[in-house]
Amino acid sequence: MQLPFLKRAATFEHGIHPVYHKETGSLPIRRFPFAPRLYVPLAQHIGKPAIAAVRVGQEVQRGEVIATPDGLFSLPIHAPATGIVEAISPIPSDSGEMEMAITLRTYTADGQEVKVRNPHDLNGLTGKELALVMQKIGVAGKGGAVFPTHAKLIPPNGTVIDTLIVNGAECEPFLTCDHRITDDVVNLFHYLTGHADQPNFNAILVAPMTMRPRLLDMIHREMQNKRAGKPARIIAKMNQLEDPDMIEALCEASNAGVSIDLIIRGFCCLRPGVPGHTENIRIRSIIGRFLEHSRIFYFANGAQDAADGEYYIGSADWMFRNLSKRIEVVTPIFAAGPKQRLWEILDICLRDQREAWALEPDGKYEQLRPASGSIGPEANGTHQTLMNLALARAKA
Length: 396
What we know:
4-stranded antiparallel sheet, single chain, about 25% helix, Endonuclease, Chain A, 9-stranded mixed sheet, CATH 2.40.50.100, alpha+beta, 2 domains
């Protein structure tokens, strides 16, 4: 089935174009002209900066190599526009530090087509040849702090890479202009790139530094609210639950009377409904047409209305590897509209009687069955309900 909103999205040629609260949706998409000068840093990834391969006064074509790699963990840089090399000198970076860059005076009247191309046929290449091609064209993943991709294709001796999947839309984009979040993201990248000695985050939760303690604090806060007679509830949707500290905290919260619903698609190391331990915890897995992959975390924080609770989204499961061994980010959601959408998703998942499997105290899963005459998510399941909502909103 071709969903209308996916068909419309396919017509967008460049960039991400959010549809919500957008007042320019009826306007045609057009390219902005190049700025008169472009500054191209020689350090654009984790690894050694590239070496300038052009000279001042030289004309370059868009797509032409203007800097060559310096060692294994380095990548070439291609000219982003056609123009003249005006300078090769240090410039201030966004952190305030000076870094070498190529200054390109662009031909503003020139078209934006790529004029220098070096196509490669990847079929039949050996692993080493493929890694060399990846380095030559300058592929760097956005995950892992912009790590050069070719370095990942050189495994230890005795290890063989069987399949390479190049996915240009792997990451789920979360867009915001809220300075509470954007300031933290800037601080995070300064820390990852060595421009800051100490991480400083006020809103976002970052593993392995602040995520685990912040999550534990929020679980304990729900316990305190319950003891004080305030509304207390936790709903967490994720792929896996394995971290011992998080499991112990959830058990403590259950014993304090906090209502806890966990929507965990994959393996779960916590048994719900065990008297004296987890009797206030309910766990379900949604298995259907699509692979459940989103992480949503809700804490009532004393609010009677779900819309007034705290919501978080991000990349991390509650696993030791995610909370202690990786750079992961979870961000709070402040705006009312996205909060309502997240609650809608959680509510649908918790009402599902078609695609939901309930984890029992003995560790076995039991598939739920909709009652006769059921309608909505109870009868249709999570995925069909979400598709119906998407179709209805696309037609509105």
